[in-house]
Design brief:
The protein is of the alpha+beta class. The chain is 49% helix and 23% strand. Strand 2 and strand 3 form a beta hairpin. Helix 2 runs antiparallel to helix 4.
Length: 152
């Protein structure tokens, strides 16, 4: 009787052990995968613009830059104009799936021949951009929202 009890106990322990091993085999890699997965990032761009050429800047950005950025899947969330003490700024926010995509798309946009031509042609209208501030924003783990744009 003791032998059959011990045998049954070993089978149950073996079964429980097998279930635990299988659970860990599935759960542990999934936990590490979620930590290693690319993290969504936001990018804040702030351009110093000038009162005398602001209208030309807005035409160039609206009619040309945004159109060419779309070609490279730039996820523009919103654009703003900010006025402070003797300074006008154009501000826009982008939402990228990860930093690698952000770097890749910017490299493609900056190498775009049409964009280079438009910048050359519009220089005759005057200086449109002064300083440029570029901030990569990494979400905190307690951010109330992790996505600003609606999924495609």
């Amino acid at each position: 009787m003791i032998r059959s009890f011990a045998c049954a106990l070993r089978r149950r322990v073996s079964a429980v052990h097998l279930v635990l091993v299988l659970a860990l085999t599935i759960a542990v890699p999934a936990a590490f995968a979620s930590e290693a997965a690319p993290r969504k990032v936001h990018q804040l761009r702030i351009y110093e613009i000038f009162d005398d050429t602001a209208p030309q800047f807005h035409v160039r950005f609206r009619d040309h830059a945004i159109r060419i950025m779309r070609r490279y899947d730039f996820p523009i969330v919103a654009t703003w104009e900010s006025r402070g003490e003797n300074r006008v700024e154009f501000v826009y926010l982008l939402e990228w799936p990860d930093e690698a995509t952000m770097r890749d798309r910017w490299a493609k946009f900056m190498a775009d021949e049409e964009w280079a031509r438009i910048k050359r042609e519009t220089r005759v209208q005057g200086r449109m951009v002064g300083g440029i501030a570029d901030r990569t924003l990494i979400l905190t783990d307690y951010s109330p929202r992790t996505q600003l744009l609606s999924p495609p």
